[in-house]
Each structure stands twice: as C-alpha cells, then as structure tokens.
Amino acid sequence: MKFRTALAIVLAVLAGVLYLFQPWSCLTTTGLLYLVTLLVGLSMVLLWSTVPKRRVDPTGKAVFITGCDSGFGNELAQQLDSLGYTVFAGCLAPDREGARALKSSCSDRLKIVPIDVTDDFQVSQAVNFVKSNIGNNVLWAVVNNAGVAVYCEIEWCAVQEFQKIMDVNVFGIVRVTKGFLPLLRQSEGRVINVASLAGRFTLPAFAAYSMSKKACIAFSDGLRQEMKKFNITVVTIEPGLYKTPITYEDYLIDHNRKSWAETPTEVRKDYGEEYFDVFLKQVQLSLKQARPNLLEVVDNMVEAVCAEHPYHRYVPYWRNQLRAFIIGSLPVSISDKLFARRFRMIEPESRKNKSPKGNKTPSPKDKTFWN
Ligand SMILES: NC(=O)c1ccc[n+]([C@@H]2O[C@H](COP(=O)([O-])OP(=O)(O)OC[C@H]3O[C@@H](n4cnc5c(N)ncnc54)[C@H](OP(=O)(O)O)[C@@H]3O)[C@@H](O)[C@H]2O)c1
Predict the structure, then answer these.
(1) If pLDDT is split at 50, 70 and 90, which confidence band does 42 have?
(2) Burial code of 219-234, b = ≥16 C-beta within 10 A, e = fewer?
(3) What's the Rg (C-alpha) of the chain?
(4) Which whole-number Å values give the CA distances from 125 to 64, 115, 120, 212, in the listed order?
(5) What's the rounded Cα separation, in Å, for the pair 55 and 76?
C-alpha cells in the first residue's frame, strides 16, 4: 500500500473516532465539526493524489531526451520506447556502450542523437536532426536530463568546476529548451527538467551542484509561467540521492583528490590532511546511502511525459517528500545544524586549538540526508 493511501485511511479513521466518541470535552460541537471536516478533506486529497493519472495516447508523439548514455535518461528512453513513443535519445557519446545498448534493446523508432549540451552547434544540429526525422509525429516532450556533479568543498572546488557544472546543468538546459520551443509550441507539448532536491536545500560540499540545480528550478519556474500562454507544460523532477554513474564513488573521490592537489598550499595547510581524509570518508559514507531503485525516479519521469495533467513538481520517494516538507519549514539555523549532523566533520587544522568542541571523528552510522 502506498504511504499516502495509508495516511489517508488513518486520517479518515481518526475523523470517524473523533466524530463518534468526541473524546475532548473542551471542543465545542462547531470546533469538532471543523476538525472532522478537515481530516476527512485531507484524507480525500491524499487518496485523490494516489489515483493513477490519465495518460495521453503515445501514437504520433515524439520525445527528445538528453543524457541517455546512462542512468535515469537511459532507463527513461527504454520505457518510453516500450510505451510506443518515438524516442530521440540524446547521447554525449553515441559510440559508447549506453547508446549501443539502447539501439539493440529498443524498437526501430528510437534514434540516437549525438549531443553535447554545452555546444551551441551540436544543439542546433540535434534540433535539425529531430526536425528532419520526426516524420508524421509531433514533438511532444523535451526531457532535459543530462547533468554532471561534483561533491567537494568550495575551497578546493576550482572556479572552472563551478563554470563547467553551470554550463551543463543550467546553460545546457537553456540551450536545448530554446532550440526546441518552436516545435513544442506546435504540439502544445511539455518541457521536463531534471533538477534535484539539492536545488531546494544545500548541504555541505554540495554548493556547486546545488547552485546549478537551484538555477534549473528558477529557469523552470520562469519558463512555466511564460509558456502558459502557449499551453506548454513545464515540470521539474527533484530526486534525492540515487546510485547512477553521477554518484560513482571512485569518480567523485578521484576528482576530490585531484582538486585538493591543485589547491594552494596555504589553504591545504589551514584544513590539514587529516581534515581532508575525514572529508573523503564522509563522502564515501554518504554515497553508500544512495538509493538503488532508479525506477522511483523514472516512474515519475514517465508520468511527467505521459500524464494528461502532470504535476508541476515531482519529488520521488515518500520519505524525501516528507523530509523536504519538514526541512523547508524549518529556520535556516536549525536545518544547517541538521545537515551538519549528517555530514560530521572534524575541526580544520588551523582551528584545532581554538574550538571548544574538540575533534570528534564521525561515526560510520552517520547517514546522508536524501536516501
Ligand atoms: N543520481 C542522483 O543521485 C541524482 C539526484 C538528483 C538529480 N540527478 C540528476 O539526474 C540527471 C541524470 O543523472 P543520472 O543520475 O542518471 O546520472 P548519469 O548516469 O551520469 O546521467 C547523466 C548523463 O548526462 C550525460 N552528460 C554529461 N555531460 C553532458 C553534456 N555536456 N552533454 C550531454 N550529456 C551530458 C552523461 O554522459 P556521460 O555518462 O558520458 O558523462 C550521462 O549520460 C542529472 O541531471 C542529475 O543531476 C541525479
């Protein structure tokens, strides 16, 4: 049973108990009626949200997806193909395993489109390719899924890394969306942007990635309002942490080591090697908490493409929905403390004798937030 269904039933039962037994004598009849109506209303809304959404007919509809080489994009391309959509699978490396596997496992409708979203020319080539190969279909959806991540503290994250991540995760989306909007206007289709919960909340060592995903959400918010006049729908998908190549431990650890080695000696001295070692352990610990079931995310992406009336925002996995709701309602001082508890660091070298807190090494039980 879905969490929302269970919660709806609990609320409805609670409403019934209140109404029948009226346990609180301090409540007036009107007060009680208000409470019961509120609980019943809430349970109805929750139940309604679990009813599967009506889907559009995939016949004659094409979808363009970026970043299909691996992860969510690869899985989404396969699923939409099996549902009968004509899929244009944008791949950064069309000769590598991911694209080849798509070609061999999907129908003839699926076409691989080479695209690096940071390259204006390649984006316009991809638009031309779709135009020339779309046949009698309309372009129904564009899924901006391509993305990169870094997981390191600001002081050893080079400015070029910030620029690169913004170029892929933000300007890539802007380029691709602007390129395809004329086709989407014809079909009154939709743009689906894969953001992240990191776009709502910034955890330590996530500043660069969070900046890009916050910008992606801001772009989507603006686009949604501006495209309403053309009946174009804009949706964001905001997952927590999942096991895909973007969260590969080896890559992220190597990247940190390289960045650390290139950091000025003065900065490294202030932090100290011990701090950096503990940092790497924390990164490893938190990546181990990544959720393995990609379908939690891909099902939401499929619904965003297929539903007649999709939500504007999808947060896969009920615990992450709950956490996002609670953390979003907390003052920053408290949410900062919560995040710090989940990413426990020791004092940097230059603070060791100044801090009253001592230098507690984090425990392996510490978990990351979005798992
Ligand atoms: N996994 C998570 O925990 C998580 C959480 C929240 C949001 N997301 C978002 O979900 C999206 C998909 O990521 P994923 O988790 O499925 O990881 P992934 O498997 O690494 O997918 C990202 C894809 O984007 C491609 N890509 C990278 N740079 C590109 C560029 N310049 N142009 C075109 N394509 C490019 C990658 O190609 P290569 O493999 O060749 O580099 C890869 O196929 C990303 O936007 C990511 O930020 C992921």
Answers:
(1) confident
(2) bbeebbeebeeeebbb
(3) 24
(4) 13, 8, 9, 25
(5) 16
Q: Which amino acid is at 43?
A: S
Name the H helices within 22-156.
29-50, 71-83, 97-105, 120-133
Pairing mode, if any, of strands 190-194 and 313-314? unpaired
Contact assessment for residue 298 and residue 196, using Cβ atoms and an 8 Å cutoff:
no
Q: Name the residue ranges covered by the structural domains of the chain.
A: 3-50, 61-323
Cα(346) to centroid(ligand 1), Å: 31
Buried b (16+ CB within 10 A) or exposed e, 178-191: ebbbebbeebebbb
Banded model confidence at residue 367, pLDDT cuts 50, 70, 90: low
| Other CB atoms within 10 A of residue 104 CB | 7
Tokens 């772009």 map to which residue? 219
Which residue minimizes the CA distance to atom 32 of ligand 1?
Answer: 116
Tokens linked to 143: 């899924």
Q: Are 113 and 129 within 8 A, CB to CB?
A: yes
Taking the C-alpha atoms of residue 245 and residue 96, their distance in angstroms, rounded to an integer, is 14
Q: Which residues sit opposite 143 in a β-bridge?
A: 65, 192
- The pTM of the full predicted model, rounded to 2 decimals, is 0.89
Contacts by residues 31-36 (CB-CB < 8 Å, ≥ 24 positions apart) = none
Q: What is the Cα–Cα distance from 210 to 204, expressed in whole angstroms?
A: 10
What CATH number labels 61-323?
3.40.50.720
- Write the Ramachandran bin of 117: left for phi over 0, alpha for psi from -120 to 50, otherwise beta: alpha
Among 244, 248, 298, 301, name the best residue to mutate to test ligand 1's pocket (greatest count of ligand atoms within 8 A of Cβ).
Answer: 244
For residue 60 the two structure tokens come to: 């004659």
DSSP summary character for residue 24:
-
* Beta pairing partners, 113: 90
Tokens representing 250 are: 């080896």
Name the residue among 224, 218, 281 with its Cα closest to residue 249: 281
**Mean pLDDT computed over 30-45:** 76
Q: Contact at 8 Å (CB) between 243 and 371? A: no
Which of 209, 242, 275, 317 does the annotation list as catalytic? 209
Tell whether the model's pLDDT for residue 361 goes beyond 80: no
